[in-house]
Amino acid sequence: MEDEAFTDINGKSISLDCQSHSSLCSEFIVSVPKVSIGKVMVYTCCVWLLAYAVFFFTENTAVLSSAIFITLVGMMLHIHFVKVDHESLLVIGSLGIQVSSSYASGRETTTFIEMSKIKDIVINEAIYMHQIIYYLCVLLKEPSDPNAVSSVVPLFQSSKPRLNCLVKVYKSCQEIISKC
Amino acid sequence: MVLKIFFPQCCNRADSGLLVGRWISSQDSAVVLAVIHYPFIPGHVKQYIQQMQAKSGVELSVLGSWSLPKDGQEGMESFLRDLSTIFPQERWLQINREVGKMGFTCDEEEQEEEEEEKVIFVHYEQRKVMLSQLHPIENGVPDPITAPLSELRQMFQTVANSQPLFFLDRYDDGPLKSTHWQTEGREASIIVELSRCRDAAHSPSLFSLLYFIFRIFSLYPLRFLSSKLSTCVQLSYRTEYMRLLSSPKPAAGHTQFMRKANIVVSFLVDVALGMLLIWWLYRDNHITMLANTLVPAADHVAKELDELLQWLMGAPAGLKMNRALDQVLGRFFLYHIHLWISYIHLMSPFIEGILWYGGLSACLGLTFALSLLSDMVALLTFHIYCFYVYGARLYCLKIYGLSSLWRLFRGKKWNVLRQRVDSCSYDMDQLFIGTLLFTVLLFLLPTTALYYLVFTLLRLLVVLFQGVLHLSVDFINSFPLFAMSLRITRPYRLAEGVKFRVLCEEPGTALHLLMEINPLKCSAVVQTYRTPTYSCYPKDSWAALVKKLFVGELIYPWRHKTTKTD
């Protein structure tokens, strides 16, 4: 278990956890900092003050109840669909690669890509507005032409770690993939 | 090379015995299907495996031996090794497990000496994998050279096709005792067996009668009418699918089975909703109430149209209309409305009877009631449709005349042969009359345009209402209710893929993974299993529609798609 101080492309600190289950299988978990209670309170207070101001002018209590309802529903949707808690990559030699992201509400979405479809794992560069960022991606083979790349699956899209973290993951992945 | 062994979870605690399964040797993996226990006669085992291979079509073989020594059962090692000579195979696996430890060890006997191999054990739940279907569904046999089946697909197919192997288990009185998923309990299998036998033909008589009626409708004079009335279209759609269902052949393949199941379930839900509607409609004199509000409602609509026309005949919105044309058009439409209202009043004693019998059609399903409602709305607003057609035709002629005379005004002509505008020299009198007519048409344009605008808006309103009805009918027809409920109650049956979890490891043992089924997303379920219908969808894009409205062409915004055949 290793834990160094990594950051993502915006400077927020993230943590990387590498677990090597065997010489054929290792797992990498990138965790993003959780929802901060201060931010939640600031947003809620803003929304409710606004609702109270509207109520002050219109004298309609539906405004207040709808503000409460909207805040609750918005928070629930945010933690269930938007806020990612950690993303993990499980590499199993000669079987495949499993990519999963788990959200703050506990929901997990998983995708498994078989080894026969994988051409390679590489670090790519991309121009993102005014920055050039690096991202780790899986290149998939075209079934008819084994030398062509049919599609690119980017990894760690929500946590967006920086190059030092990506290089670590890349080295371990290549060790496993090149063995089989 | 890495050796992957797919091991069923039900055999984790099985007594020692022989492993039966299949080698997927292109990828160096083995799928273990069952464990046959001692004592057995090798001849019987070979015969049994050959029988199972013939029945199921899966290349079964003895993979190796499994040992879980209980108390007082030592010294099995040499016995197990001797078994490999009785069953000559290319590869022989020897999987050992000790009570109290979680990990397995696997040794392999090889013909030649090679470097040490790595082994991965993938545990899977046999019953779920047997019942599940991987998506995207691949029908037919793919060409093994260009597109080999992926390893997971082969594994799923192996387990699904090996059903004959799972009939006898260790609790049966047979020559062989084996352990597989059935040893965990047999209740589920009875239900599965029963449900698999239910392809009985549904009551064929009712539907052959309906089909016969439908056949009459496709005779020439009635065909036009029946294609316009949505009730007839719905009837033909339903009878076609019922014929499909009542064929005595069982469903071939997963897609066919799901299609049939979806049709049956949506039909049942339809009829249930229809019954609910009937129950609501026929109590407390709702029908009389409806009939009593219908005629005054039609009167009210006619009165509103009257007032609208009077307003148009005056100076609507401050525009100055051409008095004579205005009066002509206004009186023409007023007379139409008068005719229509007399017709409605003539029909009014029969309305209640019509509604009563029409409501009975809901016993065939809610979709029929909705289609009937849509047809009735179309018939009741027929006068609006007529007005729209008159207004549109007048307007279209006017625009056509105007554009042609405008070209004359500029000294140009439309060349039909070359499909372009050419210059042309006109005579003096041609120019004179042309310009006169152009001016006349131009100054009459606002009047016609206004009438056209008003009636087009009314027509669009009716079309919108009908569109909503058709959309809900289409939704009831095409939504795969069975597939969706299967996804919610038994998510392992519709699999998008798999997911792996690393089981707790002990040092010195091989890697153990647990393979679970990743269910299909709900949106993918709807997309894959949608029943194709004759759905109404917009014929033109928004831009084309607006252009047609501007020019005055008649618009029929919904077009019926013909039913696709598989």
Automatic annotation (TrEMBL), chain A:
Keywords carried by this UniProt record: Membrane, Transmembrane, Transmembrane helix
Keyword Transmembrane in record: yes
UniProt cross-references to Pfam families, sorted A to Z: PIG-H
GO cellular component: glycosylphosphatidylinositol-N-acetylglucosaminyltransferase (GPI-GnT) complex
Keyword Transmembrane helix in record: yes
Domain Phosphatidylinositol N-acetylglucosaminyltransferase subunit H conserved residues, every copy: 88-157
Membrane-spanning parts: 40-57, 63-82
A biological process term (GO) from this entry: GPI anchor biosynthetic process
Coiled-coil stretches: none
InterPro entries documented for this protein: PIG-H (IPR044215), PIGH-H_dom (IPR019328)
Pathway: Glycolipid biosynthesis; glycosylphosphatidylinositol-anchor biosynthesis
Family statement: Belongs to the PIGH family.
Record's protein name: Phosphatidylinositol glycan anchor biosynthesis, class H
Organism of origin: Sander lucioperca (Pike-perch)
Automatic annotation (TrEMBL), chain B:
Pfam families associated with the record: Gpi1
Keywords: Membrane, Transmembrane, Transmembrane helix
Biological processes annotated in GO: GPI anchor biosynthetic process
GO cellular component: endoplasmic reticulum; membrane
Transmembrane segments: 263-282, 328-347, 354-381, 387-409, 430-454, 460-483
PANTHER family (alphabetical): PHOSPHATIDYLINOSITOL N-ACETYLGLUCOSAMINYLTRANSFERASE SUBUNIT Q, PHOSPHATIDYLINOSITOL N-ACETYLGLUCOSAMINYLTRANSFERASE SUBUNIT Q-RELATED
Protein name, UniProt field: Phosphatidylinositol glycan anchor biosynthesis, class Q
Organism of origin: Sander lucioperca (Pike-perch)
